[in-house]
Amino acid sequence: MPSIAQPAVKTGVTHLFIPGPTNIPESVRQAMNVPMQDMRAPDFGDLTLGLFDDLRRVFRTETGRVILYPGSGTGAWEAAITNTLSPGDKVLMSRQGQFSALWVAMARHLELDVEVVDVAWGAGTPVKEFARRLQDDTEGRIKAVFVTHNETATGVTSDVAGVRRALDEAYHDALLFVDAVSSLASLDFRMDDWRVDLAVSGSQKGLMLPAGLGILAISQRALEASRTARSRRAYFRFEDMLKPNETGYFPYTPPTQLLVGLRASLDRIFAEGLENVIARHHRLAEGVRRGVAAWGLGLVAEHPSLYSDTVSAVRVPQGVDAREVIRTAYHRFRTSLGTGLGPLDGRAFRIGHLGDLNEVMCLSALGAAEMALVTAGARIELGAGVGAAQAHYCDAGPAARQPIAIAAE
Predict the structure, then answer these.
(1) How far is CA 269 from CA 157, 273, 296, 401, in A?
(2) What is the mean pLDDT of the segment spanning 254-272?
(3) Most buried residue, 98, 162, 213, 380, by CB count within 10 Å?
(4) R_g of the chain computed on alpha carbons
(5) Does residue 406 carry a pLDDT above 80?
(6) Within the chain, which residue ranges are assigned CATH 3.90.1150.10?
(7) What pLDDT sits at residue 7?
């Protein structure tokens, strides 16, 4: 393996273009620089009660409840499962990437009877196959259906609304679980409209915070299911969290600085406008995709309808090792790109484009990736991807908002 020349003195900043943790806005970072507070103080609820209300706005739910667990999105996954399902319950899941596969593994560890539909890495949740299996389940043995809204490993966004339609058309009562870790506050997510029962997220992606908060939105139907579910839980018990939350408190020590940062992050989101945040992510992502197309490379996502507006997984040319691209970008050009996970290791790298991001930052990601690709042996024209993205970002007309199909390798 050729050695990568590293500068003796590192100047400037290391650029972060992984799909999470994402860049933290300076205003949010400074907001968290506060002294430790008394979590039992009589005015602690002045901070926290508004967070629960405003997170419901982000999830787009009027009737759901939101819980903030000190932990991660994975912890919120476990809370969702153990509070609403029982060992032996049958659940329907698909496996099309690293994170959907991890959710399957967790369900099995928690002794659920998992019916798995395996599809290619690059495909979305198989709505038609889910519909067929739900129609065939005339005895209602399937207790829950799981959807990874945005598969971070492959840059694929799945059709949650389509899964809801499949449930409705089958007159099926299964709970709908959605992993919204890399979609919340970045992509269009509608908990009430799609009648999602449990929506899982985390602090370190679209909410522009450090990792440390597992965020779970719960429908009234899921709360009802939690009263009879028999899975063992302690730390994650809904009852233990919801009662003190009503007055703004927690049953155990909360990460206060993260809560202060969340207040600043939500203020930024609402100042921009949630719809504008979603539109910005689409515009910036489309510029990145046009840059990839100008290189003559393909995305892992199989079809434009699946393209994620928060992360693009880029297939490298034959004979080029994506791991070398990532190493070169990091050591030589001070830029972090996402690695290829599972079967994509060495075959793809990922550009995260979510959170606190603008056009020039996306151009930086493309520029660094171009140089790393060329250094690793790819035959692409320097400046081609950057130029294509620049043309897109300069064009304010309708054509700039139409997704471009990228040929798969």
Answers:
(1) 21, 6, 35, 22
(2) 98
(3) 213
(4) 22
(5) no
(6) 273-401
(7) 61
Work out the angle at residue 131's Cα, subtended by the Cα atoms of residues 130 and 134, and round it to the nearest 5 degrees: 85
Q: Are 45 and 247 in contact (CB under 8 A)?
A: yes
| CATH 3.20.20.70 matches 273-401 | no
Model pTM above 0.85: yes
Sign of CA pseudo-dihedral 156, 106, 239, 72: negative
Quote the CA–CA distance of 131 and 314 in Å, as a whole number.
31
Kindly provide the residue ranges of all beta strands, DSSP E only, lying in 85-208, ordered along the sequence.
90-95, 113-118, 142-148, 150-151, 156-157, 175-179, 198-202
Cβ atoms within 10 Å, residue 386: 21
The ranges of the chain annotated as CATH 3.40.640.10 are: 26-270
pLDDT digits (tens, 9 = 90+) for 133-153: 999 999 999 999 999 999 999
Distance CA 119, CA 97 (A): 9
* Cβ–Cβ < 8 Å for 348, 315: yes
Interatomic CA distance for residues 320 and 329, integer angstroms? 14
**Which pair of structure tokens corresponds to residue 14?**
């290391």
State the alpha helices, DSSP H only, in 41-159.
45-59, 73-84, 98-109, 127-136
Q: Which amino acid is at 16?
A: L
397: pLDDT strictly greater than 90: no
Structure tokens at 404: 């471009």
Q: Which fold has domain 26-270?
A: Aspartate Aminotransferase; domain 2 (3.40.640)
Strands 335-339, 15-17: pairing is: parallel
Contact status, residue 231 vs residue 87, Cβ threshold 8 Å: yes
pLDDT single digits (tens) 274-330: 999 999 999 999 999 999 999 999 999 999 999 999 999 999 999 999 999 999 999
HSE of 265, CA atoms in CB hemisphere, 13 A: 28
